[in-house]
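Pair request: fold both.
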Amino acid sequence: MYMLVISLIVATLAVARVTRFLIEDRLSVKWRQWVIKRWGPDSLPSYFIHCPWCMGMWVSLLVVPAALFPYQWVVAIYAVPAISMVTGLLLDRKE
């Protein structure tokens, strides 16, 4: 049970980081521009790529199923974006 709780906490932070990467990060701006160009600025896909609530749900649908089987390798993989998220939050508070 302990490992499942840790896995879900790490998965939550990983979802937050991946979502932030997709909707805000400079590195994903080309992807967001492609979506807007492909479907138009007022389309549902364009809305989804700028909405943290929407994108977070879709990212969590991909991440959470593996987190429910808390093997050490799953936690290790999810730890990378999770640690990145915590680091970003800590550094943002400092500014």
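--- second member of the pair ---
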Amino acid sequence: MEKARLPMQELTEQQIAILGRLRERGFALVAFPLYASHVGVRRGECAALLAPVTGGGLRVFGDVFILVAGNPAVRVLRGSREVFVWKGSEVPATPERNAELAAFADALAEALLASV
């Protein structure tokens, strides 16, 4: 059974301004077809989904993630090592990748807070 996908609701002027500020800070706006009701943002190998907030803001939907083969990956434990997985593809969760993801999350949170 296929899950129903909700269309992206129309963005407010405030939300559009927030997206503009994110772009000014080096974030690229991207679309993730599986998450059509959210706005995707990306920088390097890292990305996040943003959801509209009542009142005009945006918030991170779920967790930030690493892209594997251009798709959102989840962190899993394989034996004694962590990897980021998307379907049959995976990449190791190296200290450098984890640091890049943490820096991305901090920069995104700071940019969203600055927009309020």
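Observation on the second member. The chain has two helices and eight strands.
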